Amino acid sequence: MTNDVLKVTIERSADVPDVFEVPAFESQTVLDVVSWIQQNADPTLSYRFACRVGMCGSCAMMVNGVPRWTCRTHINKVLDGNEITIGPLRNLPVIKDLAVDMDPFFDKWVSAEGVHHGTLTRVDPIAPVDEDSAARVEANAGIECINCSVCYAACDTVTGNPEYLGPAALQRAWTLLNDAKDEGRVAILDAVSGSGGCHNCHSMGSCTAYCPNDLDPMSAIAGLKRETAKSFFKRGR
């Protein structure tokens, strides 16, 4: 095998991974490699992608054991010699090959009350938002999440505790908790303080370390821990 050929291992089966020889090209991404395999070597290979420019997050996979957007990950940044291993995101059920079932991920958003709790109607005046307030700054810090599930796949707490809501759902809850237009404060705090909530987080920081959008779910979860503790003592008085 030469430097012009990549040795690509696809972990589509836990027992017998498939190995392909893929020609190396300049500016080649991991998604390019997966697409080449599907188009030229094995048309049965299943995977997921859409935008190819880091906007949708649907192409996330495990690359040499690390969750990444494959469309934005260049091969020359992750090669081990001339070898690379690609697998489906961990912590989620595999539908087929490299495509995972995202339902558990989104179900946890709902469980964390990660939905807007509005009280105004379309005929009411738009409520003003102070963009410089501390709460708005906290809310803005998490709104660029595109639901790629990289943080969820990176989280060892999710691996050990499938009931844990996970970093993305908890960050969404923190965003809404700081949103002046959201009226679900009590519901959110109740949701994230339960058995699968924020206090399960061990603050290992993998979610923040691997977020492709440079978000900081660990700090958001720390904020939820503080607010749920305050709420507990206030209600206990």
Secondary-structure class: alpha+beta
Number of domains: 2
Shape, per Cα inertia axes: elongated
Q: Report low-confidence residues grouped into runs of 5 or more.
A: none
Strand content: 5-15%
User: What is the CATH class name of the largest domain?
Assistant: Mainly Alpha
Question: What can you tell me about this protein's structure?
Answer:
The protein has about 240 residues and is of the alpha+beta class. It has two domains: about 100 residues, Ubiquitin-like (UB roll) (Roll), CATH 3.10.20; about 130 residues, Alpha-helical ferredoxin (Fumarate Reductase Iron-sulfur Protein, Chain B, domain 2, Orthogonal Bundle). It contains ten helices and seven strands. The chain has a five-stranded mixed β-sheet. Helix 3 runs parallel beside helix 7, helix 7 runs antiparallel to helix 8 and helix 7 crosses helix 10. The longest helix has 20 residues. It is elongated, with a radius of gyration of 20 Å. The relative contact order is 0.13.
Topology:
Elements: E1 5-10, E2 18-23, H1 30-41, E3 60-63, E4 66-69, H2 75-78, E5 83-87, E6 94-96, E7 99-100, H3 103-111, H4 134-140, H5 150-154, H6 156-160, H7 167-177, H8 185-192, H9 206-210, H10 217-236
Parallel strand pairs: 1-5
Antiparallel strand pairs: 1-2, 3-4, 3-5, 6-7
Outline of the structure:
This protein has 237 residues and is an alpha+beta fold. The chain is built from 10 helices and 7 strands.
